[in-house]
């Protein structure tokens, strides 16, 4: 069996990659690690930090999008971009609390970078949303 540190490292990287534009989820792995008896607070903390840093990477891609190859591939009329922009314009930065949602969450984060959202507000809403989600997953699956 792996030493504990490798479990936490893999948890971090799984959570990190899951919050980028890659089609990957971290919920099942977080639930598994919590369910087999690892420190629940540490599982939540590692997964939340990894997932937030992955979102920060996506935010940065959006922020730099005009200056990168991304500008070639973003269609401003794409349904996901339009939906994210409408949510963002209607509810403002608090909508970033829901950045953990499948499909639309990554687009919200990307658009917030494109919109040059204040990084402190971004951090507040994105990290708190991810933290609450992982607390729920760990609580639900560790029993």
Shape: elongated
Strand content: under 5%
Low-confidence stretches: none
Give the averaged pLDDT, no decimals. 87
> How much is the radius of gyration in Å?
16 Å
Tally of discrete structural domains: 1
Largest sheet: none
Helix content: 55-70%
Distance between the termini: 23 Å
Q: What structural class do you assign from the helix and strand content?
A: mainly alpha
The H-and-E topology, N to C, reads as HHHHHHH
What count of helical segments does DSSP give? 7
According to DSSP, the number of beta strands is: 0
Verbal overview:
Helix content is 69%, strand content 0%. The chain is mainly alpha-helical and 143 residues long. α1 (4-18) packs antiparallel against α2, α2 (27-35) packs across α7 (119-141) and α3 crosses α6 (104-114). The longest helix has 24 residues, at 40-63. The model has no long low-confidence stretch (mean pLDDT 87).
């Amino acid at each position: 069996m792996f030493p504990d540190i490798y479990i936490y490292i893999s948890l971090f990287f799984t959570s990190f990659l899951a919050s980028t534009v890659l089609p990957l989820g971290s919920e099942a792995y977080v639930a598994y690690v919590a369910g087999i008896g690892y420190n629940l607070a540490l599982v939540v903390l590692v997964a939340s930090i990894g997932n937030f840093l992955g979102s920060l990477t996506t935010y940065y891609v959006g922020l730099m999008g005009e200056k990168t190859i991304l500008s070639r591939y973003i269609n401003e009329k794409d349904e996901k971009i339009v939906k994210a922009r409408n949510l963002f314009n209607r509810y403002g930065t608090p909508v970033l609390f829901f950045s953990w949602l499948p499909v639309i969450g990554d687009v919200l984060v990307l658009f917030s970078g494109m919109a040059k959202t204040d990084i402190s507000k971004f951090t507040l809403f994105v990290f708190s949303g991810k933290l609450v989600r992982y607390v729920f997953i760990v609580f639900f699956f560790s029993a």
